[in-house]
Design goal:
Blueprint: E1 6-8, E2 11-12, H1 18-25, E3 36-37, H2 51-57, E4 61-66, E5 85-88, H3 103-116, E6 123-127, H4 150-173, E7 183-186, E8 192-193, E9 199-200, H5 207-210, E10 211-212, E11 214-217, E12 225-227, E13 231-232, H6 236-243, E14 271-275, E15 284-289, E16 292-297, E17 302-307, H7 323-340, E18 347-348
Helix pairs in contact: 3-4
Length: about 350
């Protein structure tokens, strides 16, 4: 896919864990702007408007294949809103969910969905692959191995999932939809392997937990290229609506990626990400403007500042020794909260 697609080299998730990042991706709003409760596996209210609802209103058939108990309708995540067909496969309860292989189940159901899609109306199909994920398991029957360290097992899971995404793409390539289907491939968060003394994801908002892959393929609209300009996955919903030639009935935070395909050199956009305050976090935020990145942590109400062009691993906190830049970035983050985000009163108790 990457050989023929637009590859974004610096794409960012809007949060560092699934229950915050995926809803942002599916709405075009930042996590704290959505009506929700305060639980870790967040429940989203019906008054939110997600992209599947907007596409349904535009005449699209909307389907999803997902895997995790969080997505089961009885758990009431609210993320199934607008999907005419919502298939949940391979679920296990609790931490057992992270110790089972599911990519083969998602790809099998995805192939079946492709065969059942209509030919007389447009459609949207969302596939959610849980692999790769902690605890980085070995997948029986898939012999591509890189070693026994956590990162080696993670690479094994990437290869396993890549294989099953290939199964889906191969089926698409043989279908009647092959020449008029746009494909977007991405992830909802990154992963840490000891950076800043953290592992897994959800515990910090450094680059390792925010940077994600992003590939875009639009038949007849692009040439294979690599784009280094920063982009956020909050742009996903605006891009899908742009592809569908329809608009949201309200303001969205993101901007369509299709403007990157018009031949002009794409420019960096300001990047914002957040983890909402909840039972396991006092909240955290990150803002990138130019070469500067500021991080705010609710615990201790403290800031960190990094110049990520020369310090991409965020090893030198320059908040104290770059006071002018610190002042400007603190003001920028405050302005983001005060002027750009509509996030007051959005949390309910359950």
């Amino acid at each position: 896919l990457a050989k023929h697609a637009v590859v974004y080299e610096r794409a960012y998730a809007p949060s560092n864990l699934t229950p915050a990042s995926v809803p942002s991706m599916l709405s075009g709003l930042y996590p704290t702007e959505l009506w929700r409760d305060n639980s870790h596996f967040t429940h989203f209210e019906d008054r939110n408007l997600f992209v599947a609802e907007m596409l349904t209103q535009a005449g699209y058939e909307t389907r999803a294949v997902v895997t995790h108990w969080y997505f089961e309708k009885r758990k009431r995540s609210g993320l199934d809103q607008g999907f005419a067909d919502w298939k949940v496969v391979g679920t296990q309860w609790g931490k057992r969910m992270e110790a089972v292989s599911t990519s083969q189940l998602v790809s099998k159901e995805a192939v079946a969905q492709l065969a059942a899609l209509p030919t007389d109306k447009p459609w949207f199909l969302w596939l959610h692959f849980l692999d790769p994920h902690k605890w980085y398991i070995f997948h029986p029957g898939f012999e591509t191995r890189f070693g026994n360290r956590s990162k080696d097992r993670y690479d094994h899971e990437i290869a396993f999932t890549d294989h099953h995404i290939g199964v889906v793409l191969k089926a698409l390539g043989k279908s009647v939809h092959k020449d008029n289907t746009a494909i977007i491939f991405t992830s909802d968060h990154g992963e840490a392997f000891g950076e800043h003394n953290t592992s897994f994801h959800g515990f910090s908002i450094y680059e390792d937990q925010l940077r994600v892959p992003l590939l875009l393929s639009v038949p007849g609209r692009h040439r294979a290229q690599r784009i280094s300009a920063r982009r956020s996955l909050v742009d996903l919903t605006p891009t899908l609506l742009d592809l569908a030639q329809t608009k949201a009935p309200h303001r969205l935070q993101g901007q369509s990626w299709l403007s990157d395909l018009d031949g002009r050199t794409p420019q960096d956009r300001i990047i914002y990400a957040e983890r909402p305050k909840g039972p396991h976090s006092a909240g955290m935020r990150a803002l990138i403007d130019g070469d500067w990145k500021i991080i705010w942590r609710g615990r201790g109400n403290r800031y960190e500042l990094y110049k990520i062009d020369t310090d991409p691993k965020e090893l030198r906190n320059r908040f104290k020794d770059s006071p002018q830049a610190a002042k400007q970035m603190v003001a920028a983050m405050a302005a983001m909260q005060r002027l750009a985000l509509d996030n007051q009163g959005k949390v309910s108790s359950r």
